[in-house]
Amino acid sequence: MKGLILSGGKGTRLWPLTFTSAKQLIPVANKPVLFRVIEAIRDAGITDIGIVVGDTANDIKQAVRRGNKWGVDITYIQQDAPLGLAHAVKVSQEFLGDDRFVMFLGDNVIEGGISPLIRQFADSDWNSQIVLTEVAQPEQYGVAELDDKSQIIRLIEKPKVPPSNLALVGIYMFDHHVFEAVDAIKPSWRGELEITDAIQWLVENQFRVFPYIHRGWWIDTGRPGDMLDANSMVLEELTPDVAGYVDRDSEVDRRVTIEKGAEIINSIVRGPTIIGENTRIVNSYIGPFTSIGPDCLIQDSEIEHSIVLENSTLDALPARVQDSLIGRHVTLARSPMRPKALKLTLGDYSQVGLL
């Protein structure tokens, strides 16, 4: 089998963070979401991976390169415009050939990996396998309607009146018949070739499409709140490790990961939390569900349930920062007057003086 990762799109729902970097490279628990997707595919035994890229191709290529660090072989596939998931399959046909493949959205995070799914599909004679999960707002997703034997009746993209609460997770498996489906469908009202329409074509033409219902957590990291949720989930799965320095005046609980070169000085750190390489935490409080990236300085400040990317500084803040995304090379420092609260989504290279 081969792997296909979709990493196009501009990430407009994560502006301003995505003004300067691809959305798939924003980290959860200090690791870019795209890296987690590559690892999930590799751990399922697939080493030949194509990555569909768009406007942020240079960022993706610079971060991932040829895939040597994961022991995989990466091929980049250019999609000139975001014309839908099925269009991404279409432009990848030369890379995929007649091989069966798994397609994974590069900004999705799923509990437990995909190894069992890959084994199940590889050992079957199915033409496609789709992953479904129950969601609270199905009208925001592609939705599946199943019959009383759990077979697919129909798939609808973002229905106004959803026939079920089973949404398509961003993981799909196909054989070469999907190219017939993609060639047979027409663009939707959004002007895109919808993968739901391609799968529906397979169903209607008597191809075998197997629905797998995922019972664990799954998050599409398209919005700031989703990023924080994914960060919290992944932090809870980490095996804590202290490779940095903690002085005797600090309190660090057992659910904290401190990467090499990091220093904790006269501070309290409560997990699950990760402190990145060469970061200094001085006279500060780091609360649960927080990821502090590498080469940061947190001094005389408090923060929890937040993500801080690399090379950023929080210095002498007068109030606790929480529920926040703070980009790369951000300086957040105290100004003379006090604010009542802080809730921030800051882009890379921001500098904010707090009143």
Describe the structure.
The chain is an alpha/beta fold and 355 residues long. The protein folds into two domains: 2-223, Spore Coat Polysaccharide Biosynthesis Protein SpsA, Chain A (Alpha-Beta Complex), CATH 3.90.550; 238-354, Hexapeptide repeat proteins (UDP N-Acetylglucosamine Acyltransferase, domain 1). It is 19% helix and 32% strand. It is built from eight helices and 31 strands. The chain has helices at 33-43, 57-64, 85-91, 93-96, 115-122, 178-184, 195-204, 224-237, and strands at residues 2-7, 27-28, 31-32, 48-53, 73-78, 101-105, 108-110, 128-134, 142-146, 152-157, 166-174, 209-213, 218-220, 245-246, 251-252, 256-258, 263-265, 268-269, 273-275, 280-282, 285-286, 290-292, 297-299, 302-304, 307-308, 313-315, 321-322, 325-326, 331-334, 345-346, 351-354. A seven-stranded mixed sheet has the order 5-4-1-6-11-8-12, sandwiched between helices. The chain has a seven-stranded parallel sheet with strand order 14-17-20-23-26-29-31, with no helix packed on it. Strands 16-19-22-25-28-30 form a six-stranded parallel sheet. Strand 9 (142-146) and strand 10 form a beta hairpin. The longest helix has 14 residues, at 224-237. The radius of gyration is 22 Å and the shape is elongated. The protein starts with a strand and ends with a strand. The mean pLDDT is 87.
Helix content: 10-25%
Give the total of domains. Answer: 2
Oligomeric state of the chains in view: single chain
Low-confidence stretches: none
Distance between the termini: 56 Å
Number of helical segments?
8
Shape: elongated
| DSSP summary, beta strand count | 31
- Helix/strand-derived category reads alpha/beta
Q: Which topology of the largest domain does CATH recognise?
A: Spore Coat Polysaccharide Biosynthesis Protein SpsA, Chain A
Percent of residues in beta strands: 25-35%
Let me know the largest β-sheet.
7 strands, mixed
Cα gyration radius (Å): 22 Å
Strand order of the largest sheet: 5-4-1-6-11-8-12
CATH class of the largest domain: Alpha Beta
The CATH architecture of the largest domain would be: Alpha-Beta Complex
- Say which CATH homologous superfamily of the largest domain is assigned: Spore Coat Polysaccharide Biosynthesis Protein SpsA, Chain A
What is the overall pLDDT average?
Answer: 87
